[in-house]
Amino acid sequence: MSAISLLDWRRRVASMYAEVRANPDPRAAHHAWKVARNQLFATHSESPIPSAERAGFTGLPVADYDPAMRFNVQVDADCEPARIEVVTGTDGVVPFDRVGVVHLPSVGNLDVWWLGSYGGGIFVPIRDTRSDGATYPGGRYVIDTVKGADLGGTDGYLVVDLNFAYNPSCAYDPMWACPLPPPGNTVTVPINAGELMRGPARP
Question: Does residue 56 surpass a pLDDT of 60?
Fold first, then answer.
């Protein structure tokens, strides 16, 4: 891993999400997001796709856009404080503090976490309970602002669009150690939106 190539990766991700937030048409923004991510994953040196597999990479499987999976919701800060500490492969022990909950109609509740280390950032992962291998069983990320994945929101609200849920890097290569959704980010309904799995789901 090169610091300069990682910087370039993060700049491109941040730019991609800035374009998502600026686009008034969520469906068109979602299409552009898919195209940009496929290009990054296929060509960038920091792609989580193992280098030996990139020649055969044909794109990430992503469900068709579903407007019912987009929510602009107020963060409910009336929740008990909680902290989780996650051991990662590159960043050591990463602490997250619960700062609120978002209530998604027909989906369930998701805890909203604040990255409690330098820079900070909002983190909202999700895990559904389906067992058919269609989604990564470890869960997916919807918002991870410290890495640029920010869908927007103002005045105490967050845009939580599950069509933009994406797999963590560890879904592609076991060399990565990723924070996975805790119990407060697990929902009991299948989430037929966002990035799916390439072939059989990995444990």
Answer: yes
